[in-house]
Design a protein that fits this description.
Blueprint: H1 12-15, H2 29-39, E1 43-48, E2 51-57, H3 58-63, H4 89-99, E3 103-108, E4 111-117, H5 118-125, H6 129-132, E5 141-142, E6 147-148, H7 153-163, E7 167-171, E8 177-182, H8 183-194, E9 223-225, H9 230-240, E10 244-249, E11 252-258, H10 259-284, H11 286-292
Parallel strand pairs: 6-7, 9-10
Antiparallel strand pairs: 1-2, 3-4, 5-11, 7-8, 10-11
Length: 294
């Protein structure tokens, strides 16, 4: 792969996938949820007469706690962002970060031609030296909120919802990190519960309060130490298909790095370039420079 390339030179068409899992406005929510689980996707584009008309997101569906599974897609879809195949890696990073989507459709003349995800962007970031060589300590969130192994699943879920985070490190009684508990674990847990129920709702089933985090967490956790660089984190995210990596010191969780943190670095490159253009512009235009300091 290319090394130390300019993020602006990497285009969406180079990293997008042409495999499109789509639905139609008249389809039911139950069908879309099945598509999401089968294909392990969080967003499904809605197509009508070969045109992109909307986007169904998993996060939007689970927030609608009493949404009937027989509801039609057209009643729950949202407007997708406009992404061109010629947009840069920096542009798509900013769009994914700003909108909170994990995957967005790529269109040309209103026709969908592909999908681009956070994972696609993270994988491409491996070629950008100024990001991969950065120490993890510069971008990690320090002192991440932990959940104890014997705490209940519901409490952990509520903690993630209240904190607006997707993954929690799981610690034992000594505070050592022993696992990770995230949205996928919750989704699998709720799915198992839903299969035993006939209530016909997206979420909101009653769950036994004695179910402990350690029974549904995934272990061992994926971690790096504080001496690692962002490139090592990207390698782990790509290898294990995960969105978060914990930073540990002496078995204690001291930080967390997410895909959103890396997207933020990429989006920040645009701001730096804009500042550079403004400064060089002033240097080239002496009259503007003189007016500023008169």
């Amino acid at each position: 792969m290319r090394k130390n390339v300019d993020a602006d030179s990497i285009k969406v068409k180079e990293i997008m996938t042409q495999k499109i899992v789509a639905t139609a406005p008249e389809k039911q929510v139950s069908e879309v949820l099945g598509m999401m689980r089968k294909n392990d996707v969080h967003e499904v584009p809605v197509i009508e007469r070969n045109k992109l008309v909307g986007l169904v997101t998993y996060n939007h569906l689970i927030r609608r706690r009493k949404l009937a599974l027989t509801s039609h897609v057209q009643s729950v879809m949202v407007s997708p962002p406009s992404i061109s195949p010629d947009d840069s890696l920096i542009t798509i990073s900013d769009v994914l970060l700003t909108n909170g989507f994990r995957t967005v459709p790529v269109t040309e003349k209103k026709k969908i031609i592909g999908m681009v995800s956070r994972t696609d962007v993270i994988r491409a970031t491996k070629t950008i030296g100024e990001i991969t060589e950065m120490p993890v300590g510069r971008i990690m969130t320090s002192n991440p909120v932990c959940v104890r192994e014997n705490e209940g699943v519901i409490k952990a879920k509520d903690t993630m919802r209240d904190m607006g985070i997707r993954t929690l490190p799981v610690a034992d009684k000594n505070g050592n990190i022993i696992g990770a508990f995230g949205l996928k674990d919750i989704s699998s847990f709720f799915e198992a519960s839903r299969n035993k129920s006939s209530r016909g709702e997206v979420s909101g089933e009653r769950i036994p309060v004695n179910i402990e985090v350690k029974s549904v967490m995934h272990s061992p956790p994926i971690t790096v130490d504080q001496k690692a660089n962002v490139g090592a984190v990207i390698d782990l995210m790509t290898k294990h298909s995960i969105s978060s990596v914990f930073v540990e010191e002496k078995q204690k969780p001291v930080g967390i790095i997410t895909q959103a943190d890396i997207l933020g670095l990429l989006a920040g490159l645009k701001e730096r370039k804009d500042v550079y253009v403004q400064i060089t512009g002033l240097e080239e235009d002496a009259s503007v420079y003189n007016v500023m300091y008169e």
